[in-house]
Design a protein that fits this description.
The chain is low in regular secondary structure. 11% of the residues lie in helices and 0% in strands. It has one helix at residues 5-10. The mean pLDDT is 77.
Amino acid sequence: MEMPQKVRQHLGLDDARSWIIVNEVNQFDWPGFDRRPLLGQNNTFAYGFPPSPPL
């Protein structure tokens, strides 16, 4: 599935087409090693959902 331009911009990606692979799943233990604190903010982490695509 192609990622909408609005989502690519929100994620800070370039203008090249990006794809989401929907037939693969990754499992991991939460919190994982890849969770990083926000700079200058103790015990605050960035996570959430990408923006909804325009209708």
